[in-house]
Amino acid sequence: MGLWARITRVFRASTGAALDKIENPELVLQQTIRDMRDRVPELNNAVAQVMATERLLSKNRENLEKQVVDLDSKIKAAVKMNRDDIATAYIGQLQQAQIDLSRTDMQLEQAAETSKQALKARDNYVLNMKKRTAEAMQLISAAKQAKLQEQLAQTMETFNIGDDASTFNEMREKIDRRVAAAEAKLQLGASSVDSQMQDIEREAMDIQLQDKLLEYKQQMGLLGSGSSNAAGRQIGAGSQAPQQEELLDQVIETEANEMKN
């Protein structure tokens, strides 16, 4: 192998490798789809021209048929008038019109066949374009998926399990410390003097409500004299919660006795 052939082979190989690296299959397929779609208007224009030729020949054929009929009538009229010279001239025109009509019929038949083939070719191209477009879209989707998998693979290659695991453990320990500190503050707040004072205030409120209830019942005559005196002594002494419960038991017992009587 000559030196020039080896240099050419190396150059082609290097160029091909470089093109393979920079060539994006997705962009190439999208450009191919655009090129195929751009050809459709050109095909439609070509088919329209063929069909226009067919229509023009059809119109010319109609005119020739009318001309033949008209010349035939003129020949007959000239013969009736004994104008053989005029009839002869019309006969010449009629023969030429008939020749033109025969030629036009052949051209029209060919144009009709050409139009049919052009329409068929256009339809086949559009059908093939749609098929190729669908295949290209599938390939583009596969290319995107392959690109995503490549990126994921690169990410997994650079993923260091040990370092990230230590980071997660460190963050978990910090969060646990914050949660424990918050729970301790909450427990400390629940056992503070303010919390205890709130409990005492709630208990005092309950006692006042029970005293008010007994007062209403006494005014309505629902309590006996002995019970009312005992209730008054208990209220006047400012008794604590156990004494209040004992007083309520007495009231309930008194009401039960009155209901029996």
Gist of the model:
By secondary structure, the chain is mostly helical. 92% of the residues lie in helices and 0% in strands.
Descriptive tags:
2 domains; 92% helix; 261 residues; Helix Hairpins; mainly alpha; elongated
How does this structure look, described?
By secondary structure, the protein is mainly alpha-helical. It folds into two domains: 7-150, Helix Hairpins (Orthogonal Bundle); 196-260, no CATH class. It has seven helices and no strands. The chain has helices at residues 3-22, 25-80, 84-157, 161-190, 193-219, 225-237, 241-260. The longest helix has 74 residues, at 84-157. It is elongated and about 155 Å long. The model is unreliable at 235-241 (pLDDT under 50).
Number of strands: 0
**Distance between the ends:** 135 Å
- Strand % is under 5%
Radius of gyration: 56 Å
Q: Helical residue percent?
A: over 70%
Order of helices and strands: HHHHHHH
CATH architecture of the largest domain: Orthogonal Bundle
Write the layout of secondary structure elements.
Elements: H1 3-22, H2 25-80, H3 84-157, H4 161-190, H5 193-219, H6 225-237, H7 241-260
Helix pairs in contact: 2-3, 5-7, 6-7
